[in-house]
Amino acid sequence: MHEMLEVARTLRLDLLVKLLLAVLLGGIIGFEREVAGKPAGLRTNILICVGAALLMDVSIRIGTVDGGPRIGDPARIAAQIVSGVGFLGAGTIMQSQGMVTGLTSAATIWVVAAIGMTVGAGFYVEGISAGLLVTFVLAGLGGLEHWVRRARRVASATIRTRVATPREDVATVLRAHGIAIQNERMFDHPEDRTFEVKLVGPARQFEIAAAALMARDFIYGVHIDD
């Protein structure tokens, strides 16, 4: 029995278990991302999880020589994992025409690295639990997110008003119907003032809000893009 323990210690079977578990958990999450067609897919998430687990194991062991007293800070390497993952996550975030995409992919990269660190530190139950929860959030809540997006509409609109009409007069009417102005551009002409705006709010309220605007004497026209 003693010889078997020595062999296991020599072969670092505990590290093998950590790496295999990291492959499994990273693979489960990465498979969901791959099916969803996201930029950080199966291989990316596996590599992040395995790399984080390996570095975490090294950071714990590196300060100890032959089982003697600890001579280094095990948190230093682990802290750099967080910094490195931050650069990876930032590369998946894109901004175009006022829309930001890739936030979920960036968050997934971050949490997969955290799971790898947890497994690398030997907290297997915690790592498995986190992996299952993350998979549920990514796969199970997609339908709910889709329903919320359908109920919430984002649209561009052009609103023509009387000359020198304050922005707040337009915003007040929209707010009364739960619609907010996210960004805007204003153009003054000799005959009117034009607002080009991006509106966000309940889909069913857009037509009602447009009618409410047209009922105001300072509104000349409202056009909401489909």
Assign the structural class, choosing from mainly alpha, mainly beta, alpha/beta, alpha+beta, or little secondary structure.
alpha+beta
- Helical coverage, percent range: 55-70%
Question: Number of helical segments?
Answer: 9
* Order of adjacent strands in the largest pleated sheet: 4-5-3-6
| Percent in strands | 15-25%
Large-scale geometry: elongated
For the residues shown, what is the average pLDDT? 86
Q: What quaternary form is this? A: single chain
Number of strands: 6
Number of domains: 2
- Major β-sheet, in short? 4 strands, antiparallel
Runs in which pLDDT lies below 50 for 5 or more consecutive residues are none
Query: How are helices and strands ordered from N to C?
Result: HHHHEEHHHEHEEHE
Estimated radius of gyration: 27 Å
Describe this structure in words.
This protein is 58% helix and 18% strand. The protein contains nine helices and six strands. The mean pLDDT is 86. It has helices spanning 2-11, 13-35, 42-61, 75-90, 103-120, 124-140, 142-151, 167-175, 206-214; strands at 94-96, 99-101, 152-161, 180-188, 193-202, 219-224. It folds into two domains: 2-140, no CATH class; 149-224, ACT domain (Alpha-Beta Plaits, 2-Layer Sandwich), CATH 3.30.70.260. It has a four-stranded antiparallel beta sheet with strand order 4-5-3-6. Strands 1-2 form a two-stranded antiparallel sheet. α2 (13-35) packs antiparallel against α3.
